[in-house]
Amino acid sequence: MWIGYAVYGIAFGAWGLLALVPQAIIVASIFGVTGIPPTETQAIRSKGDAYRAYQKRVTRFVPMPPKPA
Question: How high is the pLDDT of residue 24?
Answer without folding.
Answer: 86
